[in-house]
């Protein structure tokens, strides 16, 4: 099949590469010339396991191409994916300007039938706006060309995006005409494993499903984070409570980990957008307001623990930070707890030496050449003379350190673990003070 993907960000590039991988002829459009230059030179503008190899393989096979030429992109695919950004605007609603501009461009240049598929996370009702934008452009041209609009939200996780696309749990397709449904079924046939995973629903339900999934997951995390703080006050251990509730199949094991707050490009933005949407139709979701407030507070919990241990004035103190990315396997620092932690430490006069396997260049971009933030080339070298070790991201390589060495390098023998990656008795046996989240 001939497919165009508009937008070579996270979702667009992963979708384009994976669709090419199964044999489609894919053209990716981006107006950002720099991004297209990187892609054409065999690189990728983001870090995502397995993606670079997949892009290279498909470019070499002649199934994956890149362009900045809108007219060429519209002419190419019968299926036109819109996978552009929907950044929050000032009030937290999703800003649709890029989505609607992409729709207008399709209307401006299309000459034959197109299925226009929304893959960006968009508020309920966007399908209608996309349809209207295309209709407008066709009307201005004084022609009629048939087209369908489809909503096909993406559930991929950063760090596992390629795997999630290639082996999805479900594929939600919001479509309301047979021709589009037929094409979407054919498109996704290679991704069905042993049972039907494609769920055809109406467009609005598909749009809401995306927000519902992310908001539900964020709710679980904020719930566990609040419960962890409560456990601390009550002298209980959140890890044991987690095991006790996760074993109930109605609750399940996933997304029950208390920590220093959720970040990333999806949860914070989508929770906010759903709050706006629900307020906008007079059906406010009070649960979600609490989810957001609890998460904002949770990003301060590690600094609260530091202050409880070292006092409010942290001048002349330096903290070693393990982990900058909002989660492992990515260099993404959008809404990352590390950003709040670093800022709060700076405010109290402290300096920070950070180590992250892939996100240090991103931190450099965000914090610039701020002398208060320095970088270490190894986890252990960040500790030399630092007042405490603060763990913010649960990278695998942090999980089994030599606690004796940590103790020897630190000025005060303190570990503040924002992801509960250690059993408390191990650092304690080495003579370290250990503070986790909700641990006894
Ligand atoms: C999320 C959704 O999982 C994905 O389906 C959607 O398409 C996009 O948003 P992503 O943002 O990549 O994916 O990260 P995810 O792995 O879901 O983690 C989000 C945040 O929650 C991270 O900051 C992580 O540290 C935190 N988290 C996750 C917890 O604090 N506790 C948990 O138990 C799980």
Automatic annotation (TrEMBL):
It catalyses: UDP-alpha-D-glucose + 2 NAD(+) + H2O = UDP-alpha-D-glucuronate + 2 NADH + 3 H(+). Keywords: NAD, Oxidoreductase. PANTHER family: UDP-GLUCOSE 6-DEHYDROGENASE TUAD. InterPro entries: 6-PGluconate_DH-like_C_sf (IPR008927), NAD(P)-bd_dom_sf (IPR036291), UDP-Glc/GDP-Man (IPR017476), UDP-Glc/GDP-Man_DH_C (IPR014027), UDP-Glc/GDP-Man_DH_C_sf (IPR036220), UDP-Glc/GDP-Man_DH_dimer (IPR014026), UDP-Glc/GDP-Man_DH_N (IPR001732), UDPglc_DH_bac (IPR028357). Belongs to the UDP-glucose/GDP-mannose dehydrogenase family. Pathway: Nucleotide-sugar biosynthesis; UDP-alpha-D-glucuronate biosynthesis; UDP-alpha-D-glucuronate from UDP-alpha-D-glucose: step 1/1. Residues 320-424 form the UDP-glucose/GDP-mannose dehydrogenase C-terminal domain. One of its GO terms (molecular function) is oxidoreductase activity. This is UDP-glucose 6-dehydrogenase. Its EC number is 1.1.1.22. The keyword NAD applies. It is an enzyme of class 1 (oxidoreductase).
